[in-house]
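INFO batch 0412 | record 1 of 1 | parsing
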Amino acid sequence: MLNSAFAVDAGLLALHWLVQGAGYEITSTDVVDAFRATVHAARSVGREGDVVALVRGVVDTDGPRADFVATAVRSVRV
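INFO prediction complete | emitting tokens
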């Protein structure tokens, strides 16, 4: 469970930095993979709903790639 909690935090940070423009030649697949892994980890610690809401908040911020990341995240069925 400790590793899953860490994975959730790491996934949220990854998505935050993707929104802020970090990374090189990021594709929508990269975003979707990060989102799915984060949700999977959240599910294992019973935080799926909370984490999905947090991700939606992260991608709805102002950032250089916010629209790109938000579009990719919204394409995933949770």
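INFO post-check: The mean pLDDT is 93.
INFO record closed
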